[in-house]
């Protein structure tokens, strides 16, 4: 079977040309042929077929294309041509098959060998045979970005081969016959200066001096007009030589070289060995070392491979990329007997090493004399590839900045290999294998410290050694510097260095020894990014949280989210920040390495004024408050009013906010560290209103996810800030919220004190809404204390205010609590009317949380009506809501009611499961009331099964809980049930014991 890609894509079998199929199948086959004998990943095929806009069925479509091609080849006697691999597919071109591009490479390589041996006629014939394989533009008509990129590379190879062939024919004196071909090639490639020079020389040697000079003038006009540059120095020298009829231009008469005897063997070729010395204390990195050795071994065994193996070792500065590359190169050096080349490209430096400079050094190492050194980059790269064409050479390119710096240094043959280190991933290098580097783990850190400073010292101070490695951020360069300082000062203890490094303002000064320094390493990377990226890098250091979200970057800069995301990508590509957590898209998060953060704070202090830092922080916190309030509205509804400050909010685009808080509790959970640190930073910066408003907004998370320590600590900070600022409204808001925390912890006396002070402060500033919010909580305390009339009066007062202010959700909350008072009085009909109104209000207000609370109360009402089936249905709806919004406390109460309803229906096993789960949730959430009610339910369940021993145990636990909480109404119920359990041999079902 014959495959052709040097022209239209064709497959020829004995029966003739095969119909490969539509565009997707032709793209698939083209990629498989371009990498024949190598794995082509599914992701690469998907990208080639669809580009950036991927349909959901993209991978399935690739599989369909592969299946269709397999059927085609099977029908023509080649069933195993395409092989499935864990990472993709391989097209195995067997010996009996022909692939024109492979034949082209073989002929051109042989032609170069013949040329170097002096057999020019044979070299020309082989070049011409190779060029005859081309039938037009490679893979013409296949519209796919990767395929077209490969076609462009092949076209470049074709033109270069043509130039090499023409040069030999000029050397043989065939100038007359070449004028027509060269004229056509110049018209097709008007900017190829080598072709222009060859045409000028052919014309001059054919006695057409004026035409040769006309070719130069046209070349100069074209290049000045299209590129704005003059022809290269070589072409200018050729023009001068033609003008002066330089005798050196007179080529040989037409000759044919006939080797009369075998040519003398060429002189021995130099074998360059430019690798630096390996590091004696190489530590860790076994996983990465194994991966490098494995990839190079697989590439060497793959006889069908066409492309040079490329391995990119990527990571931030100081991770030991160069150490790994050099160590790996030494371990595999024997596989590359023709030499090992090494260069430091200084990718992070202000003046990077150019490919021109590197090629000159490499060519000299390969035996090219200075007088034979080509002047242009393209010519040097061609000579470099030609010299390496039949060699097995390892090339190590250290500290590359970008792909363009590397591309001219890649050999053209598969027998060589390239190891590259870079602070960027160089994702634009086709087929490159990525080796990611990260900081050391604790064991590796201690091992490196021990090898440098002495293992005895590390064993003598193990705790201090661990602390030292953490202060170094487990960064290999920092550990090496710390170890070297200890080694140079044997009289120091490890603890002495730890004490020095704990001062963050001097940490980078301490991490310097000789020519090694962390600050210098990070600074190189910092200077390599653009000015706006550097500014964002500095401003990110303002935040006290270890992880920051992409949406916050725009707020720090005062610009758009899109521009900020581009800058974050630039910083991430340079390894100044790194991705953190599983989030992606608008939810992506980043973090600093510890030492990079120290450097960022140094630059922040040096390059941003105090006023600029404060303004950026205020923008960030104002944006955080804006998004936090949006998330709160998603949980409680648009109509749910809170006490808020007049702090400036920094809005984000509506679409972005909707994406961020589509799952509000997930957003709160993700941004919890930012919320907690932001409250503290706001207090320190004097932003009292931002401070207490953020604290109020964060309670949505703290309460539902039971982060009670965060709730308490942030409110202590916010209360102090409000008092320092003389802000009575802020003090009232925080006292009201802190009272709610006490209420959650069932510290009812402390809660009442905070609520009373909050009401006094709200009355002082005339904030009726604040008064109503506090009143409803005081009413709850009254109800728990058995003061039903006082509770009803306060609920009614709060309801009047909520109705007047239009707070539908607040009114719904009060109504369902008034309904509970009706249930306590044995009036389920009155409770039902209030609950129907509360349910409608909660739904209109959009508060799922309050809706679930109302449904829970409705379930209790149905239990009082002895309608357990309806109650179970209502509780089932409520349980779906609380689980959806992530409310474990609400789930505990609903499970209590559901367990009792299941028990009344005779579903004992389901009832026990629900009640036991409620006990577990109540204990884990610290909600004693919920735990006590669930224990009452388990007591009832045990009594219904005549299990008096367990009934007594559960009810005694419940009584203890209620007594500790100081809730007399529930104490009375628990005592009544406990008396029955102890005295009744067969207790009847207690129909009202655990509701309410």
Describe this structure in words.
With 996 residues, the protein is an alpha/beta fold. Helices cover 64% and strands 6% of the residues. It has 45 helices and 17 strands. The strands form five sheets. The chain has a five-stranded parallel beta sheet, sandwiched between helices. The protein has a four-stranded mixed beta sheet with strand order 3-2-1-7. It has a three-stranded antiparallel beta sheet with strand order 4-6-5. Helix 33 packs parallel to helix 35, helix 39 packs antiparallel against helix 40 and helix 43 runs antiparallel to helix 44. The relative contact order is 0.04. The C terminus is likely disordered.
Outline type: elongated
Tell me the structural class.
alpha/beta
- Provide the gyration radius in Å: 39 Å
Global mean pLDDT: 87
Strand content: 5-15%
By DSSP (H or I, 4+ residues per run), the number of helices equals 45
Distance between the termini: 83 Å
User: Strand sequence of the main sheet, in spatial order?
Assistant: 9-10-11-8-12
How many beta strands in the DSSP annotation? 17
The proportion of residues forming helix, as a percent range, comes to: 55-70%
Low-confidence stretches: 254-263, 986-996
Largest sheet: 5 strands, parallel
Main features:
disordered C terminus; 45 helices; five-stranded parallel beta sheet; 6% strand; 996 residues; alpha/beta; single chain; 17 strands; four-stranded mixed beta sheet
């Amino acid at each position: 079977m014959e495959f052709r890609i040097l022209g239209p894509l064709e497959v020829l079998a004995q029966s003739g040309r095969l119909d490969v199929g539509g565009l997707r199948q032709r793209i698939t086959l083209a990629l498989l042929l371009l990498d024949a004998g190598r794995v082509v990943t599914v992701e690469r095929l998907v990208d080639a077929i669809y580009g950036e806009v991927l349909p959901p069925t993209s991978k399935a479509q690739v599989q369909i294309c592969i299946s269709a091609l397999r059927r085609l080849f099977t029908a023509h006697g080649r069933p195993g041509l395409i092989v499935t691999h864990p990472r993709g597919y391989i097209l195995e071109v067997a010996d009996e098959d022909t692939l024109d591009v492979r034949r082209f490479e073989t002929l051109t390589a042989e032609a170069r060998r013949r040329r170097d041996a002096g057999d020019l006629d044979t070299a020309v014939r082989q070049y011409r045979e190779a060029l005859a394989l081309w039938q037009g533009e490679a893979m013409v008509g296949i519209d796919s970005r990767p395929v077209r990129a490969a076609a462009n590379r092949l076209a470049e190879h074709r033109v270069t081969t043509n130039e090499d062939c023409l040069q030999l024919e000029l050397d043989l004196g065939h100038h007359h016959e070449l004028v027509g071909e060269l004229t056509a090639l110049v018209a097709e490639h008007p900017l190829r200066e080598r072709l222009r020079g060859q045409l000028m020389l052919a014309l001059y040697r054919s006695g057409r001096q004026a035409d040769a000079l006309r070719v130069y003038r046209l070349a100069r006009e074209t290049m000045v007009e299209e590129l704005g540059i003059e022809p290269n120095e070589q072409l200018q020298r050729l023009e001068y030589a033609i003008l002066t009829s330089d005798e050196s231009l007179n080529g040989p008469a037409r000759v044919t070289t006939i080797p009369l005897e075998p040519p003398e063997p060429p002189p021995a070729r130099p074998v360059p060995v430019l690798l630096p010395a390996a590091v004696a204390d190489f530590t860790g990195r076994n996983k990465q070392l194994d991966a490098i050795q494995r990839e190079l071994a697989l590439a060497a065994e793959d006889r069908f491979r066409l492309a040079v193996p490329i391995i990119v070792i990527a990571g931030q500065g100081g991770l030991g990329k160069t150490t790994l590359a050099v160590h790996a190169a030494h371990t595999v050096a024997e596989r590359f007997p023709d030499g090992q080349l090494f260069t430091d490209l200084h990718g992070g430096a202000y003046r990077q090493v150019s490919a021109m400079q590197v090629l000159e050094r490499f060519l000299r190492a390969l035996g090219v004399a200075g007088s034979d050194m080509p002047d242009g980059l393209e010519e040097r790269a061609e000579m470099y590839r030609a010299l390496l064409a039949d060699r097995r050479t390892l090339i190590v390119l250290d500290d590359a900045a970008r792909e363009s710096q590397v591309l001219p240094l890649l050999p053209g043959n598969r027998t060589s290999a390239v190891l590259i280190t870079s602070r960027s991933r160089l994702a634009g290098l086709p087929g490159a294998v990525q080796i990611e580097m990260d900081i050391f783990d604790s064991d590796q850190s201690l091992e490196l410290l021990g090898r440098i400073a002495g293992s005895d010292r590390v064993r003598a101070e193990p705790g201090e050694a661990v602390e030292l490695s953490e202060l170094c951020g487990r960064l290999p360069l920092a550990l090496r510097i710390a170890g070297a300082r200890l080694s140079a000062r044997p009289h120091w203890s490890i603890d002495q260095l730890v004490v020095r490094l704990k001062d963050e303002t001097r940490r980078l000064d301490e991490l310097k020894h000789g020519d090694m320094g962390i600050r210098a390493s990070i600074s190189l990377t910092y200077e390599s990014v653009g000015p706006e990226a550097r500014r964002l890098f500095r401003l990110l250091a303002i935040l006290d949280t270890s992880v920051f979200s992409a949406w916050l970057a725009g707020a720090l800069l005062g610009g758009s989210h899109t521009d900020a995301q581009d800058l974050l990508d630039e910083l991430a590509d340079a390894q100044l920040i790194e991705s953190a957590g599983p989030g992606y898209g608008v939810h992506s998060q980043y973090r600093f390495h510890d030492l990079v953060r120290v450097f960022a704070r140094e630059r922040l202090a040096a390059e941003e004024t105090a006023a600029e830092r404060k303004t950026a922080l205020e923008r960030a916190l104002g944006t955080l408050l804006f998004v936090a309030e949006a998330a709160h509205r998603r949980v409680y509804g648009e109509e749910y009013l809170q006490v808020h400050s007049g702090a400036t909010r920094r809005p984000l685009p509506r679409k972005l906010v909707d994406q961020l808080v589509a799952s509000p509790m997930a957003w709160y959970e993700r941004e919890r560290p930012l919320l907690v640190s932001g409250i503290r930073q706001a207090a320190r910066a004097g932003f009292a209103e931002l401070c207490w408003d953020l604290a109020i907004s964060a309670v949505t998370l703290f309460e539902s996810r039971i982060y009670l320590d965060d709730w308490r600590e942030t409110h202590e900070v916010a209360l102090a800030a409000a008092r320092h600022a003389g802000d009575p409204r802020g003090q009232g808001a925080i006292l009201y919220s802190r009272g709610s925390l006490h209420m959650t912890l069932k510290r009812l006396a402390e809660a009442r004190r905070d609520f009373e002070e909050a009401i006094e402060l709200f009355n002082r500033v005339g904030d009726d809404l604040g008064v109503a919010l506090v009143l409803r909580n005081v009413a709850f305390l009254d109800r728990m204390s058995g003061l039903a009339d006082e509770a009803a009066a306060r609920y009614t007062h709060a309801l009047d205010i909520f109705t007047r202010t239009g707070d539908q959700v607040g009114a719904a909350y009060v109504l369902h609590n008034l309904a509970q008072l009706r249930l306590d009085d044995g009036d389920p009909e009155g409770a039902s009317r209030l609950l129907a109104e509360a349910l409608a209000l909660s739904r209109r207000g959009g508060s799922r949380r309050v809706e679930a609370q109302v449904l829970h109360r409705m379930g209790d009402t149905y239990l009082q009506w002895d309608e357990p089936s309806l109650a179970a249905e209502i509780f089932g709806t409520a349980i779906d809501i609380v689980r959806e919004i992530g409310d474990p406390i609400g789930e505990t109460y609903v499970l209590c009611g559901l367990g009792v309803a299941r028990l009344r229906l005779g579903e004992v096993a389901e009832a026990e499961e629900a009640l036991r789960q409620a006990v577990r949730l109540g204990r884990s959430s610290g909600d004693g009331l919920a735990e006590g009610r669930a224990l009452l339910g388990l007591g009832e369940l045990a009594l219904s099964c005549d299990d008096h021993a367990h009934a007594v145990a559960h009810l005694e636990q419940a009584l203890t809980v209620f007594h500790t909480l100081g809730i007399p109404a529930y104490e009375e119920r628990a005592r009544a049930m406990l008396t029955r359990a102890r005295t009744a041999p067969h207790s009847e079902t207690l129909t009202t014991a655990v509701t309410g």
